[in-house]
């Protein structure tokens, strides 16, 4: 057992890189006699089939923040962090049923474009700037940092060089090919992602059981750390002391409170996620892709959370640690450095499989980077550049500006990413700081979609005031029993959403004097009609979720 890579590992990883770049550039090529236009670059010519949409949704979503960050939270918190994944499955069903029909009917390129059609150009610009800041300074930077941390831990490469390498890899095909290159390579990335993740899970559980297999390992992990298998955390520990983890996942409020804000915002109104559903051949095709993604979300905790829990058991078992030899003493995760759990596990994979697992991690990182870059360029080009700099830009100019925008965003993210060094539980960091922006955006969209009285003035004030409201709730010392500091940030996120909706409702009612807004969306039963396949699949997802929560409550 060696900590570093052997020749076979490098060969496998290089073969993966060549495959991704080759496919990405091949699907990006301009067809004879046809120059790439805006629809080709930003919406993959609206030609994606359901299986490509489902795979691309998961590849865009599962990144270093899940493999590294969520495994780290599994190490620190346990299975409760899987609520993000399992509740996402239900959220996807809601998005497919109620949001997508409206978006696709309006023929959108971007989510801010919907805001312009429903409200105004001014509000579209405000939200576009919100998103650009969030993608560059939170999403891109955190994914690059966590990817760099993984490469540094596993291969010993300096973090800055690792970050630059990942950035160049993602840029190599996504900047040229646009969404088509991103989506089609995502299909391959998901295969690597799932298989590589399952290999790591198998290794971790088999090691815990002393080579007696996965089921024996899972049984031992459950026996050794039963407190790590509760989906709903209690406010107090068994000895009466305060449970510090409650601040990150506040018990039953996870199911009925702020986590809905995070999920509905992320899956329904997040450009780099929703963009691949807008690129579908049809609404039905898009909904089938959503359903596939929902089923995949149910199994994701097996490959991103369980390894973190297994690592916790291994680190706290002297007998297991002794059996790991010198390799086991390298980069050991701890309560203060939980995000080292997944990279630490990868060290124990045998030659060959280490290359496969690392390719899976790279696939997760690169696919998300590519998706974020494409959506950043789409929003800037379609919602800011064409609006304020060149209204008459032709397709060639538009595509070139999109490429330049992605390149600039990537350079900024590369420079900022190393500043996150030393961050613990990065997954929670991403959720917490996204939570400063998401309440206002969610409030604007929910009321804009489903409440005809919502006015432009009300939506603008709700969006603008949502951030100071969120900051006030975050910084003011709200007392919670057993804690002499701030309330769980998930509560703050839920309250910020409700208060933003109140602001929008009061101003809208005042402006329209109780009448429907002229841009209110007419809703009909026919608009939300879904196929029997989608309905049966949705019920299956809900039944599986109910069983999972009943077992692990």
TrEMBL record:
Compartments, as annotated in UniProt: Membrane
Record keyword Transmembrane present: yes
GO molecular function: D-glucose:sodium symporter activity
Endpoints of the signal sequence: none
Family, as annotated: Belongs to the sodium:solute symporter (SSF) (TC 2.A.21) family.
Originating organism: Seonamhaeicola maritimus
Keywords: Membrane, Transmembrane, Transmembrane helix
CDD domains xrefs: SLC5sbd_vSGLT
A Pfam family recorded for this sequence: SSF
Residues passing through the membrane, by range: 7-27, 48-64, 84-104, 125-147, 159-176, 183-205, 251-269, 290-315, 356-380, 401-420, 432-451, 458-480, 486-507, 533-552
InterPro entries in the cross-refs: Na/Glc_symporter_sf, Na/solute_symporter
Name by which UniProt lists this protein: Sodium/solute symporter
Domain of life per record: Bacteria
Principal place of residence: membrane
One GO CC annotation: plasma membrane
Membrane-topology descriptor: Multi-pass membrane protein
């Amino acid at each position: 057992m060696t900590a570093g890579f052997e020749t076979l590992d490098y060969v496998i990883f290089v073969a993966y890189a060549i495959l991704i770049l080759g496919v990405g550039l091949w699907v990006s090529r301009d067809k004879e006699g046809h120059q790439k236009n805006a629809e080709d670059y930003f919406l993959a010519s609206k030609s994606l089939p359901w299986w490509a949409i489902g795979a691309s949704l998961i590849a865009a979503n599962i990144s270093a923040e899940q493999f590294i960050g969520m495994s780290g939270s599994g190490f620190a918190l346990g299975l409760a962090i899987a609520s993000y994944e399992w509740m996402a499955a239900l959220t996807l069903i809601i998005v497919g049923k109620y949001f997508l029909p409206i978006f696709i009917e309006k023929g959108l390129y971007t989510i801010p474009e919907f805001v312009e059609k429903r409200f105004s150009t001014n509000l579209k610009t405000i939200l576009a700037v919100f998103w650009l800041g969030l993608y560059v300074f939170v999403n891109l930077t955190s994914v690059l940092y966590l990817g760099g941390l993984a490469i540094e831990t596993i291969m010993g490469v300096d973090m800055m060089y690792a970050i630059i390498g990942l950035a160049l890899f993602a840029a190599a095909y996504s900047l040229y090919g646009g969404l088509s290159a991103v989506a089609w390579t995502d299909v391959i990335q998901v295969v690597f992602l799932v298989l590589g993740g399952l290999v790591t899970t198998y290794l971790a559980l088999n090691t815990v059981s002393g080579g007696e297999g996965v089921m024996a390992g899972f049984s031992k992990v459950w026996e050794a750390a039963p407190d790590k298998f509760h989906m709903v955390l209690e406010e107090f520990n068994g000895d009466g002391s305060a449970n510090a983890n409650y601040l990150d996942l506040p018990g039953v409020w996870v199911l009925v409170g702020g986590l809905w804000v995070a999920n509905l915002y992320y899956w329904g109104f997040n450009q780099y996620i929703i963009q691949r559903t807008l690129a579908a051949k049809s609404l039905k095709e898009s909904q089938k892709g959503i359903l596939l993604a929902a089923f995949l979300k149910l199994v994701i905790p097996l490959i991103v959370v369980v390894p973190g829990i297994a690592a916790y058991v291994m680190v706290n078992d002297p007998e297991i640690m002794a059996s790991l030899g010198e390799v086991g003493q390298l980069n050991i995760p701890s309560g203060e450095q939980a995000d080292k759990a997944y990279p630490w596990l990868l060290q124990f994979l045998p030659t060959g499989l280490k290359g496969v697992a690392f390719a899976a991690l790279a696939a997760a990182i690169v696919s998300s980077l590519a998706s974020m870059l494409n959506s950043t360029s789409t929003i800037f080009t379609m919602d800011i550049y064409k609006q304020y700099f060149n209204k008459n830009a032709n397709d060639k100019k538009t595509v070139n500006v999109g490429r330049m925008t992605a390149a600039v965003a990537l350079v900024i993210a590369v420079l900022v990413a190393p500043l996150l060094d030393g961050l613990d539980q990065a997954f929670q960091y991403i959720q917490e700081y996204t939570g400063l922006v998401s309440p206002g955006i969610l409030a604007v969209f929910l009321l804009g979609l489903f409440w005809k009285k919502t006015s432009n003035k009300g939506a603008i004030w709700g969006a603008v005031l949502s951030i100071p409201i969120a900051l006030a709730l975050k910084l003011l010392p709200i007392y919670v029993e057993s804690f002499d500091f701030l309330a769980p940030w998930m509560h703050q996120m839920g309250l910020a959403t409700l208060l933003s909706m109140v602001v929008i409702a009061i101003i809208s009612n005042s402006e329209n004097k109780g009448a429907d807004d002229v841009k209110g969306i007419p809703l009909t039963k026919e608009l939300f009609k879904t196929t029997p396949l989608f309905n049966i699949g949705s019920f299956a997802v809900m039944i599986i979720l109910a069983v999972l929560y009943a077992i692990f409550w």
